[in-house]
Amino acid sequence: MRSLPVPIETTALRRTRQNHPGGPWERLEGASKRELKLVLLENQQNVCAWCEVTIGADNSHLDHIRTRNTSPQLIFAVDNLLAACQNPRTCGHGRQNKGSLPPWVHPYETEDLEDRIDYYPDGSLVPASILSEATQREADEAINRQLNLNADTLKERRERRMVEIGTYCGQGFTVEDLMEILPDFPTLTKKLCR
């Protein structure tokens, strides 16, 4: 998870919001959804906003940060939409029917989201120790139950990435170089290369 700039709103999204403020989501049609997804992917550097694996237009979906059920007024709000991976057990698909995320787990509204998480050497994502106990509990709930960011496949990929990053350390690569070479998990890369 990381903080992101608010993406540019597409014309189709703006028109749909103006004409159908409360939805339904299907009012935004196929070509318009694809255009929006491309804008979001560019804004996210082609990685899932939640787990940070590389995604593209054909292996991602549009995800509502605040759910359509709990916040129907935000159904067509660009600052409530992001691109997420298609994994049925993690991220956007994995959090269905698991309640709302804590308000601070919002990539567009929380400036320091990446500072609120840490990594264990086994690839586990954990709440940062700088958080209060209550916020750590919320973060643990979001990471493990709602988004399932410690699914075995994700942990293993992050652990392998840590090893890969280690092979580049001390060879004169900048963080930006490494993020270009190894685009998955940009937050992990930044934390390991500080």
Structure, described:
This protein is mainly α and 194 residues long. The protein has one domain (11-152). 37% of the residues lie in helices and 8% in strands. It contains seven helices and four strands, in the order H-H-E-E-H-E-E-H-H-H-H. It has helices at 11-19, 30-43, 91-94, 133-146, 152-168, 175-181, 186-192, and strands at residues 60-64, 81-85, 117-119, 125-127. The mean pLDDT is 92.
Indicate the topology.
Layout lengths: L10 H9 L10 H14 L16 E5 L16 E5 L5 H4 L22 E3 L5 E3 L5 H14 L5 H17 L6 H7 L4 H7 L2
Shape: globular
Low-confidence stretches: none
Strand order of the largest sheet: 1-2
Helix percent reads: 25-40%
Structural class, by secondary structure, is: mainly alpha
Strand content: 5-15%
Rg (CA only): 17 Å
Descriptive key words:
194 residues; mainly alpha; two-stranded antiparallel sheet; 7 helices
Outline:
37% of the residues lie in helices and 8% in strands. It is mostly helical. The radius of gyration is 17 Å and the shape is globular.
